[in-house]
Amino acid sequence: MGFSRFFSWYAKKKKKNVFDAKAERPTWSRRLEFILASVGYAVGLGNVWRFPYLCYRSGGGAFMVPYLVMLFLCGIPLLFMEFAVGQYTRLGPVHALAKVCPLLKGVGLATVVISFMFSTYYNVLLGWALYYLFSSFGAALPWQSCNNTWNVAENCSSGFPGNTSHLQSIHNKEQRTCRSAKILRLLEKTGGIDEAGGLRWELLGALLLAWVIVYLCIFKGVKSTGKVVYFTAVFPYVILFALLINNVQLPGAKNGILFFVTPVWSKLFEVKIWVNAAAQVFNSIGIGFGSMISMASYNKFNNNILRDTLIVSLTNSFTSILAGFVIFSAIGYMAHVHNLPVDNIATDGPGLVFVVYPEVLSTMPVYQLWTPLFFFMLLCLGLDSQFANVEVAVTFIKDGFGPKVLRFLRKEELLVLAVCVVGFLLGIPHITKGGVYVFQLMDHYTAVVSLIACLCNCNQKMYGIYIMSFKAVSFPVQCILISSVIQYTPAHYGDYTYPVWAEVVGWGISLVSIVWIPLGAIQEIYNNKGSLLQVSTGHIIQTNDRIKTCVVALTRLERAFLKYLDVKDHLPEKQKINNPEFEALFTSAA
Question: In this structure, which topology does domain 2-527 adopt according to CATH?
Fold first, then answer.
């Protein structure tokens, strides 16, 4: 019995020292929950509004060439890297990257800041989706006519099919969108960002409800999130396939789809197309936001992350293409109804799903069914992404300040509540009458500086061996980063150009995200003695030495234990208790 207890204690002690993870850290109940949560995070609103428009503007079917190249060359390897770091360390991005490379612990903190800033305005989109969802339950959709108090005569017309000149003049009024660009008052905006206007109280209520839903879904950690994603990650596909079946039967749908997929091969020689493809891959999968590291940290240590990486990345790309067929088949139908070119209706950003597509739905048969289903689908897509964004901040606080925070808040549920409350308060500026300008500014500058190159260069080694040649990944990412800087354009909203002070604020937002990278490196160098190489790699070497020591010791103990079981019945009682061979083995192994 004494030997068995010693073996159990020794194994647990060494395992805890090597992996340095808390034994009580929760795990996903099933592997499927992790996959669904990861797919739900990767597949977001950008798959519905950004990818289809980007594909159409970047050469149609030809855009798939740079997109797939960037997916397999950069996206999949980097996603595998993030899964590996999270699962191996069982920690959030800050502490996980600090273990892999102490010099770059600031990268982890930067990802936390970016994710939380992103969550503050991403939930505004969920508020908009809720507002539209509730407004679509009436007998008639509010945006079907111009007989509303919020419509402006110059921006609204009920339209007359075939009257191209009349409708064309309306399209030119507001970003080429059809009829009422101030549809349902949702985009009722002031003249610029310096005119905030008053609060939109109905949107404030919708934003509050969105944060309440997020809290109720994640307040129990991965145990509650894992159950919610069974519905929120699967239901959007049901709606997308239903909409696709419905849309392809509409007149004009074929023209819209051809407009979406027809290749323009000359576009492949434009650097901007490759930059857009890389940006879409990184932003869609969620590379560099820390969310994938956080979710993988709740995996079991022996989970097959290569399989999960392929499932998540390929499902995300498939969803983007599926959404493109859904969106452009509907736009083709709308162009047919109003006798307009497709490119006069197609638009980018939230306007595609909150202005153009609602009007498309209002002209469809049985619009009372399709409209609420569409906005509920948007809500589900956004919720899955928001779960992971908020979880990054919660995981960081628990890993770094868990005991102190829990002594003050008593329960982990209150910590999640505190994070949600802060996120709600920071989202209020986005729901003023000028909030759409704030939203666009935040969206443009939050991730203007990529963190991918920093993550690549510090993760060539894990477990003491090369698991992947990240140099091959790092070089094209660096080229893309340089091209993005060279081709930088200031933020704008339609024809509106932001004033200089707003540009300064935007760059300040970017600086808040990335300043932690050099600060973390400086702090690590200041607190540790030795050369720069020793500071950057010493922790990894130390970790690998502990792993090797543990493996050797456990192997020798296992052999000794089996030998002990085999000979114990033939030994005298005294020799069973005091065996010099075992004593020497324990001493050398320890």
Answer: Amino acid/polyamine transporter I (1.20.1740)
